[in-house]
Amino acid sequence: MKAAVIEKKGTDPRFKIKELPRPIIKSGQVLVRNYASSVNPIDVMARNGRALLASAGFSNQVIGSDFCGKVLQSKSRLFKEGDEVFGMISAIKGGAYAEELTVNADQIALKPKNLDYVEAAVIPLVGLTAYQGLFKVGRIQEKENILITGCTGGVGSVAVQLARTLDCHISGLCSEKHRAYAHSVGCDVVIDYQNQQIPSGARFDLIFDAAGMYTYSDLKHHLNEQGLFVTTRGETNNIKGLVKTAVDVVFEPYMKFVFVKPNADDLNVLKEMIEQGKLKLHIEKTFLLNQLTEAQRMMKNGGFVGKIGVDIGE
Do 133 and 239 fall within a single domain? Predict the structure, then answer.
């Protein structure tokens, strides 16, 4: 099978397409012929980390989290050969930037019928992050007043659509050039984080930091009593932010992290919403497997809405 393998070359590790052996499935797993994947910020981080391993002598480092394809072999009663499935692999494990992969059968779901392979492949990681962050960690309720940072990114735009199903009042933070898109996915109020402040009197039942750029101390004055601040990462892009986030994690009970986990039940909730027309993710651009270096560079540079797709081919 073909896979995009990391090769360490200077400070910008690149991918090289190589032929690798077919993965061997174990009991409770399925072998998937993978037709599509996507690029997530965590994949870019994993790329740099795996490149260090490659430079230390570990060859054939394959990353990637999202996948969508057909079951080739099954050692599970949950799926049979020919089933179209989608899901995610932990970014730490990786392996989705390849034509074939093995996955535990209790961590995947049948592909939504109304999406093609690339459209389905961009959903799992960001969809599960948003769903688990809002419903399992944030305990979102109907008609709450919520704030979502990064509301036009992958996680954020899914979070807005999920909150919309509960008739919540949604304020979103994004750049001014993405204001129209933020309204289109369901934001009631859009705040340009570069040139506007959150109104001083604004109070929220839940703040979901989908951008992963803030910590509790930054926004706690905008929370109602008992309101929760849920973040995907916290303000960890500099030393000062790391220290502030660490202090908040220890001392602030209303700050929570969402650590996304592959989960078939949660995927099936998303699948049902997609098939009902309540959830769809914009794809800004789709790259081929041999264009992964360019795709990850686009992710690193940012400035787009939705997701980046990867077409691995049938």
Answer: yes
